[in-house]
Amino acid sequence: NTIFHWASNTKTFTAIAIMQLRDRGLLSLGDPLTEYLPELKSAHNPYGSMDDLTIKMALEHSTGFRNPTWPWGGGEGWHPFEPTEWDQLAAMLPYSELLFEPGSRHSYSNPAIIFLGKIIEIVTGDVYEAYIDKNILKPLGMYQSYFDNTPYHLLPQRSNSYTLHEKDPVPNGLDFNTGITVSNGGLNSPISDMTQYLGFLTGSHTEHEILDRSSLEEMWEIQHEIEEEDGIRSSAGLSFFIEEFEGMRVIGHTGTQRSFYSFFYIHPESGTAVLGITNTEGREGEPDMFQFREDLVRYIFQNLFTLYR
Length: 309
Known about the structure:
Elements: E1 3-7, H1 10-23, H2 55-59, H3 86-91, H4 110-124, H5 128-137, E2 146-147, E3 162-165, E4 168-171, H6 182-185, E5 187-190, H7 191-202, H8 213-219, E6 224-229, E7 232-236, E8 241-245, E9 248-257, E10 260-267, E11 272-278, E12 280-282, H9 289-303
Parallel strand pairs: 3-12
Antiparallel strand pairs: 1-5, 2-5, 3-4, 6-7, 7-8, 8-9, 9-10, 10-11
């Protein structure tokens, strides 16, 4: 029941919420982002009109926006962990430009998912956290999952994160505010709750209809090829990533923030899944937790999921 921070795995919850709204006829994946967020018109698009960017492009990370949310500052202890208000994000749009032609290729973008979180709020009238809690977390029985600051009654279960200083783990503090980026990476949850989520993804959790199965599988269709490395071919779906190894396909996502390194993958054909998380990293990348996670995931692909092909 230890509560960890799942960082960018939150993006898959945001994407499912968008698909829920699509299925209810409240929006279309082909809708321009500027229809809901006219502030985006002030960004510099050397490839055409900002009206050409769609909700679908944001889901598949093909808008052309940069990867980091806030590329300026952040190095001082008194700086906010992330921008706290939408106005802060909107204020830097006139100083932002698209890096490639929208829709032409995949490039991971945190701002694109934040735009989707804001659209959820505009369409539903709920703040992002409330919508996800009412329409995904509660129906799945994820009662110990929440965003940002920990409820008092759950503090004894909250995991700290640690950074190694000369081999000694130094705690970074239990909570931090992901601010306007909450839809991009604000989820805290115990593994017991996350297994409920994976049960929904694999089809074994059917007590409540979170999303039609056909819509979920639509999210797992390849939209853009990313790379092939060491025999593993990676592609982008609608905020999920598709990994193919020796003819086997798994679906998942990873997350990295504040010394938490996490991942989950499901094998739809067998209804099996795996998830993992660590909460410690070293200074200046020692130990290299990115490499550790990559090696662990490759081992899982080669030795665990292959048992069920």
